[in-house]
C-alpha cells in the first residue's frame, strides 16, 4: 500500500473513527443542570417554540446547524458508489464547515428508490436545520431535487457541486483571464462534463459575460451539439450549432478548458492545440482531467488550476460553501439567491489581489505568494475569506429582501 494511501486511512481511523463529534455547549454536571437541560426545564422552550416557531432559533442549535445531505450518486469524480461510501466526504464537508466558519454540521446519507422519495425525506427533516447543503448528487436528478427543496423549505438549500463550484470557478476564471489578458466575452471555452458542476459553472460564467455560443460542452459521447437527440433539457441549453464532434475538434484554438468530469481525459497533445496563453481548470477530484506536470510540460504559457490542495491554484468549492452559509445563516436568509452568489464571486476573487498574510504563507509552506499565474485565487485557510465573503453575502441578502433578521452595522468588520 502506498504511504499516502495508508496515511489517509490512518487519518480517518485515528484517534477515533471519522472526523467529527458532537460537543456540549452548556453545563450538564449537576442535578440542577439536568433539571434545566432536560426534565422539567426543557418543557419551557418547547412551549415557546410551539407558540412561535421562530423561537427555535433562540432556544436550539438550529440557527448554526447545516445538514450535509447526499445520496452518494456522484461522489467526487468517483461516481455512484452509494450513500454509505460517501460518508467520509460528507464528514469532510462538516469538518470544513466547522474549521472555516464555525458552523455545526451533520452528514446525512439517504437511501431512496425514487427522486420523490429523496425529496420527501429531506423536506420532512428540513426544519431541524438552519440550512441544507446538498452534496454529490448526480445530474440531472440534482436539478429537480434542488428546485423542489427550495420550493418546499423555508431555509437555504444549496447544491454545493453546482453553485459552490460555479462561484469559485467564476472567481478564479475572472482573475486568470485578467492575468492572461483575455476578455471573457471573447474567449472560447471547452467544458468537459455536462453534469451538476458543469452546467452551473457555465451558466455563472455566462452571467459574468461569457458567450453561450463560444462554449463547447462535452459529455461522455463528445460535443453537445444541436443535432444530438440524446440529451436532457439541461444539456440542451448548451447544444452548440457546430460541426465539432470530438474533444480535439473543440479544443483546437480554445482559450479555456474547464474540466468537471473525470480523471485523465485531457492529453498533453490536446493542450498543445489550445490558443496562446491558455487556461486549464482541471477540477475533477481526486484525480484531475490532466496532471499539472503534464500540462505544464506541454505549455509554458499556461495557467493551471486543480481541485486539489497539493498544487497551486486550488479551484474547489471549499472556498465558498462555509462562508456563503455563514453569511446566509447570520442574515437568516430564506434562500441563497443569485445576488448572494455573485457577491461571493467578487469577495473571493478580490482577496487574491491583496498582500497574503504570513499565516497563509506558513500554512501553505511557501515563502511568498503574489497575484499571478501560480496564485489566481485565495487559499482555503486564508482568514480573510470568512469575514469578507460572509459580509458580502449577508449584505446581498439584506439588499434583495431575503434576510429575516437585522445585521449589526459592523457585521464581520
Ligand atoms: N473542484 C471542485 O470544487 C469540484 C469538482 N467537481 C468534480 O466534477 C466532476 C463532476 O461532478 P458532478 O458534476 O457533481 O457529477 P455529475 O455526475 O453530475 O456529472 C458528471 C459529468 O461528467 C461527465 N463525465 C464523466 N466522466 C467523463 C469522461 N470520462 N469523459 C467525458 N465526460 C465525463 C458525465 O457525462 P455523461 O453526462 O455523459 O454521463 C457528466 O456529464 C467530479 O470529478 C467532481 O470531483 C465537482 C464539484 C466541485
Ligand atoms: C469538491 C467537490 O465537492 C467534489 O469534487 O465533488
Ligand atoms: Mg462534491
From TrEMBL:
EC numbers: 1.1.1.40
Binding site for (S)-malate: 285, 316
Record bears the keyword Cytoplasm: no
Molecular function GO terms recorded: malate dehydrogenase (decarboxylating) (NADP+) activity; metal ion binding; NAD binding; oxaloacetate decarboxylase activity
Protein's organism: Moritella yayanosii
Positions with a binding annotation for a divalent metal cation: 135-136, 161
Cofactor binding, note field: Divalent metal cations. Prefers magnesium or manganese.
Keyword Metal-binding in annotation: yes
Catalyzed chemical reaction(s): oxaloacetate + H(+) = pyruvate + CO2; (S)-malate + NADP(+) = pyruvate + CO2 + NADPH
Active site (record annotation): 38 (proton donor), 93 (proton acceptor)
Keywords, alphabetical: Metal-binding, Oxidoreductase
Xref: PROSITE patterns: MALIC_ENZYMES
Cofactor(s) needed by this chain: Mg(2+); Mn(2+)
Residues of the Malic enzyme NAD-binding domain: 162-398
UniProt name for this protein: NADP-dependent malic enzyme
SMART domains in UniProt: malic, Malic_M
Top-tier EC class: oxidoreductase
Domain Malic enzyme N-terminal, residue spans: 17-150
InterPro entries: Aminoacid_DH-like_N_sf, Malate_Decarboxylase, Malic_enzyme_CS, Malic_N_dom, Malic_N_dom_sf, Malic_NAD-bd, Malic_NAD-bd_bact_type, Malic_OxRdtase
Stated family: Belongs to the malic enzymes family.
Amino acid at each position: 500500500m502506498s504511504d499516502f494511501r495508508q496515511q489517509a486511512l490512518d487519518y480517518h481511523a485515528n484517534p477515533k473513527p471519522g472526523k467529527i463529534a458532537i460537543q456540549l455547549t452548556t453545563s450538564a454536571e449537576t442535578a440542577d443542570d439536568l433539571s434545566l437541560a432536560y426534565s422539567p426545564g426543557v418543557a419551557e422552550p418547547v412551549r415557546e417554540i410551539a407558540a412561535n416557531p421562530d423561537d427555535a432559533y433562540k432556544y436550539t442549535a438550529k440557527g448554526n446547524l447545516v445538514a450535509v445531505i447526499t445520496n452518494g450518486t456522484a461522489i467526487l469524480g468517483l461516481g455512484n458508489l452509494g450513500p454509505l461510501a460517501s460518508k467520509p466526504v460528507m464528514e469532510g464537508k462538516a469538518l470544513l464547515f466547522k474549521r472555516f466558519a464555525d458552523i455545526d454540521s451533520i452528514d446525512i446519507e439517504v437511501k431512496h428508490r425514487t427522486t420523490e422519495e429523496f425529496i420527501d425525506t429531506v423536506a420532512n427533516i428540513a426544519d431541524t436545520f438552519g440550512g441544507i447543503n446538498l452534496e454529490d448528487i448526480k445530474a440531472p436528478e440534482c436539478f429537480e431535487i434542488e428546485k423542489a427543496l427550495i420550493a418546499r423549505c423555508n431555509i437555504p438549500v444549496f447544491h454545493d457541486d453546482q453553485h459552490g463550484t460555479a462561484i469559485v470557478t467564476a472567481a478564479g476564471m475572472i482573475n486568470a483571464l485578467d492575468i492572461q489578458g483575455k476578455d471573457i466575452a471573447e474567449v472560447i471555452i471547452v467544458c468537459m462534463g455536462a453534469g451538476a458542476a458543469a452546467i452551473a459553472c457555465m451558466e455563472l460564467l455566462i452571467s459574468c459575460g461569457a458567450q453561450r455560443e463560444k462554449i463547447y460542452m462535452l459529455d461522455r459521447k463528445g460535443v453537445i451539439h444541436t443535432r444530438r437527440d440524446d440529451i436532457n433539457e439541461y444539456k440542451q441549453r448548451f447544444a452548440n450549432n457546430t460541426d465539432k464532434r470530438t474533444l480535439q475538434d473543440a479544443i483546437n484554438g480554445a482559450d479555456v478548458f474547464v474540466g468537471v468530469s473525470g480523471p485523465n481525459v485531457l492529453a498533453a497533445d490536446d493542450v498543445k492545440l489550445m490558443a496562446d496563453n491558455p487556461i486549464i481548470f482541471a477540477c475533477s477530484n481526486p484525480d484531475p482531467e490532466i496532471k499539472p506536470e503534464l500540462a505544464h510540460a506541454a505549455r509554458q504559457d499556461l495557467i493551471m488550476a486543480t481541485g486539489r490542495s497539493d498544487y497551486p491554484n486550488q479551484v474547489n468549492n471549499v472556498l465558498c460553501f462555509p462562508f456563503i452559509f455563514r453569511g446566509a445563516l447570520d442574515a437568516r436568509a430564506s434562500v441563497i439567491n443569485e445576488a448572494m452568489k455573485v457577491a461571493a464571486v467578487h469577495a473571493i476573487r478580490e482577496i487574491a489581489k491583496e498582500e497574503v498574510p504570513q499565516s497563509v504563507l506558513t500554512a501553505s509552506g511557501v515563502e511568498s505568494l503574489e497575484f499571478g499565474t501560480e496564485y489566481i485565487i485565495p487559499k482555503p485557510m486564508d482568514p480573510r475569506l470568512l469575514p469578507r465573503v460572509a459580509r458580502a453575502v449577508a449584505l446581498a441578502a439584506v439588499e434583495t429582501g431575503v434576510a429575516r433578521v437585522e445585521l449589526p452595522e459592523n457585521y464581520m468588520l
